[in-house]
Amino acid sequence: MATVTLLAAACDDGGSGAGTAADEPLLTDQVSFTAARLGGGEFDAASIQGKDTVLWFWAPWCTVCRAEAPDVVEAAAEFDGSVEVIGVAGRGEVPEMEQFLADTGTAGLDHIVDGDGAIWTQFGVAAQPAFAFIDDSGEVEVFVGALGREALTERMQALAEA
After folding, report:
1. So what's the architecture of 2-9+44-161 in CATH?
2. For residue 81, what are the CA distances in angstroms to 77, 78, 107, 153, 160?
């Protein structure tokens, strides 16, 4: 059973970007879902089991998501091969999501479409941006809000070293 810890502060609730620990951690049996990939094909979460992974939850209209996109790309490049980064696009239409990739230079990352919000719900994400840090044992920590390059890199380093 994977533990999901929620930390909160997001752009659509007026958050400052600084996360705070949730009162109670949430529990989930496993990371399990399938979704369409932006650009075609299907993604199966089974492909990340046993791998250190970061899910980046974003919306195409979110200005904070757009601003942090370069940090996400740089961190993903730094940890390429040791921590996988997957964008989880929601709260928009596919053409808007594709435009976000083109506008932000994030097309080199793997992105999936969460059109009905089921993946966001599985991870307890109600606002964007958010990150789910999944270690190779399946433990999950969710942070809601922007992290910035330094904090994102520190969390990814901790995943890679665990």
Report:
1. 3-Layer(aba) Sandwich (3.40)
2. 9, 9, 18, 14, 10
